[in-house]
Amino acid sequence: MKSRPITLGIVLRLIARQTVLALPFALFFTMLFGEGLRTFWSFYLVSLLFACMIAFAILINRTFVLPRIIGAASAEGGSALVIEIGSYALAAMLGSVGAAAIVETTIGKGVFTSPRGISMLVSFTLLFSALFLGLVYSMRFQRRLVQRIRAEAEATAREEQELRIAGEIQRALQPGRPRVTRSFAAAGAAIACRTIGGDFFDYFDLPGGRLGFALGDVAGKGPPAALLAAMVQGIFTSHVDDGHGPAGTIERVNRVLNGRIVEGRFATIFYAVLSPDGKLLSCNAGNNHPYLVSRDGSVRRLEKGGLPIGPFEGVTYEEEETPLRPGDTLILYSDGVSDAADANDEAFGEERLLRCLGPACEMEPEKLIEHVLGEVRAFAADRPQFDDITLLVVRYAGE
Known about the structure:
By secondary structure, this protein is an alpha+beta fold. The protein has 2 domains: 8-157, no CATH class; 174-396, PPM-type phosphatase domain (Phosphatase 2c, domain 1), CATH 3.60.40.10. The chain is built from 9 helices and 12 strands. A 6-stranded antiparallel β-sheet has the order 1-2-12-11-7-8. Strands 3, 4, 5, 6, 9 and 10 form a 6-stranded mixed β-sheet that branches. Strand 1 and strand 2 form a beta hairpin.
């Protein structure tokens, strides 16, 4: 236990503090034993003497005595707090006895030598000691509480700042604007239920004017899911141009991820490649089945694929080939869309989503995303959601 040396500033502050603390004691003794306010100052001087003597005794104890006995007690496995309180109590009582001795030998001869005086001395010594100890420890606990609250607030602020930065980095990893060419247009949006989330989407320019696009959803929420999502996205990006097609690409990503995945974690992902001639090759690894809305208004789902990636070794995936006609629109979404809940815990559901997609072929991908997200927000009535919401819309325009 470290102690500060006794300086003139500490002594002056101690005396100034006791001049204030002695006031209520002087009033107490004046009402108990005095003869009105004319005896107040006599009791104030005695109270000030007792207050200063007790304070000095505690200061000396804290500076010279307590560090030594605390060190010895710690070496023997004793309770430091019990020893500290006991030493302060003894110091306070010794200070009271010292103050009584000064009063007895100066202005109050015989006051503390009679049986009644001795009993008064013992009673008020215990009272003064208890009050001063209560004051000392209340101030100490209040100071520690303030320090702990301040430390927790600073830690929370740092964590929030780090999460904000992580959220900015995560958003920077996703496409910042729609991808539009002569043959197709793609747009996406991801809304994390927390500062950072486990959903991601991306699109890739591939040889031959092809467009690759993916939407992934990592199990879990918050920083762990965001870290895994960034890893999955990075692994995926490094394999999209290896010429193996969507199924082969997902198999390779699964193999890499399986060797690094944390137990109990997995990700679902839909990946597709769209050629300028309208040929769509796709593979769905456990994600929600995308909707393909034709220009004539008919709707079908792309379902071929396999298991989620990560936890299973040696998984093979099925690839689906779908010819698209100009105006056909593909809508990919995470389960945060269909699972969005209102105040009654009713889910948004697939039927409402399908109704939102009615005007799909008449709206640009960005406008369609705004329309769907607006319907989800209106349904949830701004209730906080517990899953990330991600949408990716791809429109085929023809060669």
